[in-house]
Amino acid sequence: MRASPLLQVLRAWTGRIQRPFLRAGDSLAAQRRLGLVLLGLLAALCFLGAPLGLLDDYQQLLFMYAGINVILCVSLNLVNGYMGEFSIGHAGFMAVGAYASSLLTVRALPEGGAWLGPVAVLAGGVAAAIAGLVIAVPSFRTRGDYLAIVTLAFTMIVKSGLENLEWVGGGRGLAGMRKLTTLPWVFAWTVLAVAAVRNIIYSRFGRAIQAIREDELAGLLSGVETRRVKLIAFTVSAFLAGTAGALYAHLVLFITPRGFDLLKSTDVLIMVYLGGIGSILGSVLGATIYTALLELLRPLGVWRMVCLPLLLVLLMIFRPQGILGLRELPWLVPRRDRDAVRRRGPRGSDEQGRSSVSDATGDST
Amino acid sequence: MSAPRREVASTPGRTVPAGDHAPQTAPAASHPLLETRGLTQRFGGLTAVADLNLRVQAGELVALIGPNGAGKTTVFNLITGVYKATAGEIRFDSVSIGGMEPSRIHGLGIARTFQNIRLFADLSVLDNVRIAHHARTGYGLADALLLTPRLRREERRVMEETLALLRTLGLDELAGEKARHLPYGQQRRLEIARALASRPRLLLLDEPAAGMNPHEIGDLMEFIARIRTEFGLTILLIEHQMKLVMGICERITVLDFGATIAEGTPEAVRADRRVLAAYLGEPDEGAVSGAAAGGGDGSTDDPGDPHGRRHDPTDAGSAS
Amino acid sequence: MTYLLQQLLNGLQLGSIYALIALGYTMVYGILQMINFAHGDLFMVGAFALFVAASVLGLPFVPSLLLAMIATAAIGVLIERLAYRPLRSAPRVSAIITALGVGLFLENLVNALSPYPKHVPTLLSNHSWVLAGVTISSIQIWIIVLAGILVLGLDLLVHRTKVGMAMRAISWDRTTAPLMGVPVNAVISLTFGIGAALGAAAGVFYALAYPIIDPYMGVMVGWKAFISAVVGGIGSIRGAVLGGLILGAVEILVAAFLPSTGRDLVAFALLLVLLVLRPHGILGRPRPVKA
After folding, report:
1. From the CB of residue A167, how many other CB atoms can be counted at a distance below 10 Å?
2. Per the CB < 8 Å rule, is B120 touching A210?
3. Residue C97 lies in a domain
4. I need a surface site. Which of A96, B188, B229, C21 has the fewest CB within 10 A?
5. DSSP letter, residue C216
6. Closest CA to C241 of C144, C179, C175, C151
7. Does residue B113 sit at the C interface (CB-CB below 8 Å)?
8. Which residue, A230, A228, A226, is CA-closest to A218?
């Protein structure tokens, strides 16, 4: 029994993953503690793993890919999941971020010091955000699939435009970047991106974004300037995709327009819907699992890319909401929201939630 | 009741000639809270609203009735900015609101509900109401990203106001439920709560009694009367349930083919021949007055409207 | 002038192929409001089916064409049955994601089975004639004439037959159509089948003109055809044809007068400009907002 507390807490933590507006129980403190411990361990691994020789180069690379994918995934979830629009332009924004930051570090500031890393990432984000704004203005004039079409065209134009720009290497690509992207930096940017999306979601903007998904007209008639909110969400999303592109460029050190084609966008889409729309934890899991799956299935060779789409189709048929669609880890929800709904609701929490609450309390007494 | 001005309704059985609002303007400098002049909306060849002159004084409770497809919901869509009128003018508290963005009109103090309930189904009751606070919550994106004290203060205020409102409407126990999980009656109530969250001066209710039984309609009438005083509201409502219309409205405007065919007190409208003709197609004394008087049984005029004789694509909700 | 005419003729050839694929996008969209992103890969499947029929089975052109169309139609129907039908009442996004998945699956499956580009054997002897300075090849005539016949046939089917009426009924109102006795599932299957068959025909024609085929050939051509459908007004059959022809002509003309790498750039820029000016395409109609 002495060994079980950790197990208990673990079960409580996993069992309590449910709707964002739940009646939080006493297990929450335990969850939060465990969450922070895990995050701390991950941080320690990311910051000390390489110097202490715990992670080899390949493992570090995987961690960095996972982090970059998490950034892409949460940012796309903002538009496709929380807002309910359908953008397939993430590869385009990534390309803008990657090229803008690379041009900065290779051409403009080749002598830059240690400060160049974050500056390059921010520059990539800003460039992509500007592109996002330009794209968003015409796309949100009409509803429905037009965002998909416009972002599709945008991605094609970026790729084809870069191929035609000899100045940035054309189809041959751009090289000469220094390896500014390291695991600690990726970790920091990933945490920042997740925190940013989380803070937006639980603000008035996040509620307005979700109102657009649920019923745009009702939102408009409840005082939400839907167009402005869409622009904000889309620009933030593009910004984050741009930072991911910048991190990626300074990790692989060689970028080509072909690397940012629609297949890349499709990858991110798969991660979002695998993890589940409207869930931050879902996106983190979706990106991590997808990155891991890609590696685990590598022995399958050419059949790997046959199996992955098949898995996606099966997932959509049998679990269309993804792993965690519209559910959230409770301690990502602000306390005021949890307090407001605590012990309200005659139907109470669902069985799973209740039992885990009692588990945790039963253990502590 | 907060002393509604009744001048407009004072002439029994008066039908409003187009553009005539001179004689009965109030002696005091009181302009109507809502006024439409020559409001017209055409969809292709169909005239959904024709030269409508509507006046609602502050504090009044006015009903807009008429057969299905008479253009009632279109009037709401015009007032709230969903449609831009083909012609005519809409003034709210003397400000011309025709052509304004819906969110801005909402900000001026007009809120509404929908004939077919339109909630944010996958969001909590709490969030449904908090969304209506969006425009009046004073912090920006930077505050949201950095969780500044200003955000905390504003969010706390919004939360307090929302919980208080939910408590007033008896929904506080359900604050954490998804809107989609509420029973029908509570969903209607939540929609009204969302409309009230912005402290509107004018509340537009689109068939609030649709789908309710006579008992529930009785409750709803009390509820409307209560929120009217409590929130100092002016209410314009669309309704087919004669029990409700005759029971609580001070004034009724009857629309047919998008035009006003009668206006006045419930008694006056009930006796108006044109209203009978509109509802029955034939002038037939007694039928509507009988139906209206017997409206207490709640059997008349369900949303499926026995008199509805044409399908109007603009009267949305009946279709979807 | 003759150069321009020559390019317009080449554009017509390419445009016919886009138009045939665009029809599949637009038919499925019209009936299910779903963007079938796997459709471009059915075009590729059609080309590979032609390869199998011609070089493995050794069939001549017309039987190869028919076999490719029938086999691809069967695959199209099967995809709808297995992957899309279970999602018909799910959110639209699930169907779009599934379509993307099916497309990737098809590409990579063909890639796994046949990793190297294939050379389609010459099925039609190619003659050329020079008419007023413009060179016309017999393959061009085959492509343009056959595509025209298929398009006309489809137009007759949709506008003149009972089946076509059923299709239009479902696209108008899918919930009411079954109440009127329209066999919705059968008609949807048929729509996918016809769309896939037309896509396969496009694949065959493409392989006649450019005989090297590879598993990813459907990606870019598919997107372009999708753009054609959008430019014409998605959901509109005549719009899809018009859009295909416009895109084909624009692309060839761009390639003729500008550096050829600019083709895609111009095609997609055209799409963006058009969407800003006419959000619902040339022949598309907006659906009314309801409140």
Report:
1. 10
2. yes
3. yes
4. B229
5. T
6. C151
7. no
8. A226
Look at A142 and C286 and tell me if their CB atoms are within 8 Å: yes
- Residue B204 token pair: 């537009």
Closest C-alpha to A79, from A200, A237, A286, A249: A237
User: What H or E segment, with its residue span, contains residue B254?
Assistant: strand B251-256
Alpha helix stretches (DSSP H) within chain A: 4-15, 27-48, 57-76, 90-103, 116-139, 146-164, 183-201, 204-220, 226-252, 262-275, 280-296, 304-318, 335-341, 351-364
Q: Work out the end-to-end distance of chain A between its first and last CA atoms, rounded to an integer number of angstroms.
A: 13
Domain membership flag for residue C102: yes
Placement of tokens 């989380």 in the chain: A198
CB pair distance less than 8 Å for B134 and A221: no
On the 0-12 / 13-18 / 19+ scale of CB atoms within 10 A, A304 is: middle
Q: What are the tokens at A112? A: 């830059």
In this complex, is the C-beta atom of B36 within 8 Å of any C-beta atom belonging to chain C?
no
In Å, how far from its chain's centre is CA B259? 18
d(CA C268, CA C131): 33
**What are the residues whose beta carbons fall under 8 Å from the beta carbon of A201, sequence distance 6 or more?**
A78, A82, A209, A210, A280
Of C105, C234, C268, the CB nearest to A310: C105
List pLDDT tens digits, range C195-209: 999 999 999 999 999
Chain C neighbours (≥3 Cβ pairs under 8 A) are A, B
> Which residues 208-267 of C have a C-beta within 8 angstroms of A?
219, 223, 226-227, 230, 234, 259, 261-262, 264-265, 267
Alpha helices in chain C (DSSP H): 2-32, 39-51, 61-79, 92-113, 138-160, 162-172, 184-209, 217-232, 237-257, 262-277
Find, in chain C, the residue whose alpha carbon is nearest to that of B44.
C288
- Total tally of structural domains belonging to chain C: 1
Residue C65 lies in a domain: yes
Per residue in B168-210, pLDDT (tens digit) is 999 988 998 999 999 998 999 999 999 999 999 999 999 999 8
Confidence of residue C227 (pLDDT cuts 50, 70, 90): confident
Give chain C positions within 8 Å (CB) of B43. Answer: 288
Rounded Cα distance, A199 and A207, in Å: 11
Question: Which run of H or of E encompasses B34?
Answer: strand B34-43
ipTM of model: 0.85
CB proximity C289 to B under 8 Å = yes
DSSP-assigned states of every residue in A13-81? HHHT-B-SS----THHHHHHHHHHHHHHHHHHHHHHTTTTTSS-HHHHHHHHHHHHHHHHHHHHIIIII
- A12 falls in which pLDDT band (50, 70, 90)? low
Six-digit token string for A187: 């970790």
Which one-letter DSSP state was computed for residue B95?
E
- Contact indicator for B244, B221 with CB cutoff of 8 Å: yes
| Cβ contact B75:B258 at 8 Å | no
Which of left, alpha, beta for A90 (phi over 0: left; psi -120 to 50: alpha)? alpha
Max Cα-Cα span within chain A: 71
Residue with tokens 């709904």: A341
Residue C205: which domain range? 14-217
CB within 8 Å: C289 and B320: no
Nearest CA distance, C290 vs chain B (angstrom):
6
Token pair in block for residue A287: 């990106």
**Is residue A246 a contact partner of residue A98, using CB atoms and an 8 Å limit?**
yes
Q: Which tokens hold the place of B316?
A: 């949305």
The DSSP output letter for A108 is: I
Angle CA(C202)–CA(C207)–CA(C211) in degrees, nearest 5? 170
Q: Which of residues 281-310 of B touch A (CB under 8 A)?
A: none
Cα distance between residue C110 and residue C100, in whole Å: 16
Spatial separation of the C-alpha atoms in residues B245 and A170, rounded to whole Å: 72
Q: Where are the domains of chain A?
A: 56-261
Query: Is residue A11's pLDDT more than 60?
Result: no
Q: Work out the average pLDDT over A85-112.
A: 92
